[in-house]
Amino acid sequence: MLTEGHAKLATYPPNVKYTEDFTELQEEARAEKKGVWAYDSLSQGSAEGDREEETSYIGNSSTKKYHRESCSAVLKMNEENKVIFQTGEEAETQGYEPCKRCNP
Ligand SMILES: [Zn+2]
């Protein structure tokens, strides 16, 4: 019995075939940036916080002025009056004027 068991172990080493397949799949997935490996690139992206600053302009739909995000007028602005613009040009085509204080 024991001998037979050992023989079986030797002939079919556990997990070797499985491990080979698994490694292969991992490499495939990594190459295609799929599955778990996709999280690698996500966690590396630290630019998330930087994007919040000075990348857009805030318009006031009440006064029809637009401001830099850092302008003190934005802090006082009603949330419901806030309009986000990606560029100053975009704001002006919609009838907004640049704020004289922050000069966007
Ligand atoms: Zn302003």
Automatic annotation (TrEMBL):
Biological process annotations from GO: DNA repair; regulation of DNA-templated transcription
Occurrences of domain TNase-like (ranges): 1-38
Domain of life: Bacteria
Classification via InterPro entries: Ada-like_dom_sf, Ada_DNA_repair_Zn-bd, SNase_OB-fold_sf, Staphylococal_nuclease_OB-fold
Protein name as catalogued: Thermonuclease family protein
Ada DNA repair metal-binding domain: residues covered: 56-104
The species this protein was found in: Sinanaerobacter chloroacetimidivorans
Segments of this protein annotated with the region Disordered: 42-62
An example molecular function term from Gene Ontology annotations: DNA binding
Alphabetic keyword roster: Activator
Pfam families, alphabetized: Ada_Zn_binding, SNase
